[in-house]
Amino acid sequence: MTTAHQEFLWKTLKTIIMQVLNQHGRMYGYEINRAVQNRTDGNLTLTFGMVYPLLHQLEREGALLTQTEEVDGRPRKYYCPRPSTGLPTSRQPTGHERLIRMTQPFLKPSSTWAVCQ
Amino acid sequence: MIKLTALHLQQLDQALVRSGLPQVLHPELLDHLAIDIEHAMADGQDFSAALHQVMQQVNAEAIAQLKQIDQQMQDRAVVPAFVNRVPVRRYRKRHRATDQFKIWRQTSVLAFVTLMICLFWMSPVFCIPLTAFGSVCIVALTSLLGALGARLFTPRRSRGIRLQAA
């Protein structure tokens, strides 16, 4: 994988994780993975090798707040999006989110597509 | 839902330590794999089989990839703003003459000259000997010439202090 490809992949996964957390609020890593699987009907599974480094990176960037609690005799780290200082409904989409939305029309199958003969 | 006992968690913890996973991710991976084992045990597997199945995910390739990703993430960590600040060497700064000070200085000289002219003109009335004016004028002129000479012939560097970037 090239660096640019990795960068694109990480940004896409970060966008997905932030969207899931913004919708559900406080979640832990396994729960985030399960939510992504449910949303994509099992087509996208985030391995633990990808989820946790991404969550740590988002925490270092200040996008997420964390809280560790003991559940069933083991520590569990919960992540939640850092609340913005402005109105919660006025969150602007990032450049990467806009790119994903722009490519969506090209990925949907259309009946009006021309067929090469 | 089956919950792992303290002994189970200890065995899982030892397995994670033996696998060589990055220490910073250890607590979260312990919880993640524990949930996987609980799901496997809920499907009818015993703990040993579930642990063996789960630890197959934690193979050498996955660990190497995880370490690589974690290291790359840390390398691209946000640099604090103060690290990029350019250090500035500061010298002892002398306050420069402001416009107000210059006006006051010029006004004082003019006032002194005006006063001397008035006293010279009024000297017969006040019975002031002319020799006194001569002495005062000589002293004043000498001081003025000395100040001008010091300003003109003093090297430029020692006259003012400037801030320089390192």
Summarize this structure as a short list of keywords or feature phrases.
heterodimer, A: 117 residues, alpha+beta, three-stranded antiparallel beta sheet, B: 166 residues, mainly alpha, 7 helices, 64% helix, rod-shaped
Outline of the structure:
Chain A is an alpha+beta fold and 117 residues long. Chain A is built from four helices and three strands; from the N terminus they run H-E-H-H-E-E-H.
Question: Can you describe this structure?
Answer:
The complex is a heterodimer of chains A (about 120) and B (about 170). Chain A is α+β, with helices and mostly antiparallel strands and about 120 residues long. Chain A has four helices and three strands; from the N terminus they run αβααββα. In chain A, strand 2 and strand 3 form a beta hairpin. In chain A, helix 1 packs across helix 3. The relative contact order of chain A is 0.13. Chain B is mainly α and about 170 residues long. Chain B has a two-stranded antiparallel sheet. In chain B, helix 1 packs across helix 2 and helix 2 crosses helix 3. The radius of gyration of chain B is 44 Å and the shape is rod-shaped. At the A-B interface, helix 3 and strand 3 of A face helix 2 and helix 4 of B.
Indicate the topology.
The complex is a heterodimer of chains A (117) and B (166).
Chain A: H1 3-24, E1 27-28, H2 29-39, H3 48-61, E2 64-71, E3 74-81, H4 95-107
Antiparallel strand pairs in A: 1-3, 2-3
Helix pairs in contact in A: 1-3
Chain B: H1 6-19, H2 26-42, H3 47-55, H4 60-75, E1 88-89, H5 99-121, H6 123-126, H7 130-153, E2 164-165
Antiparallel strand pairs in B: 1-2
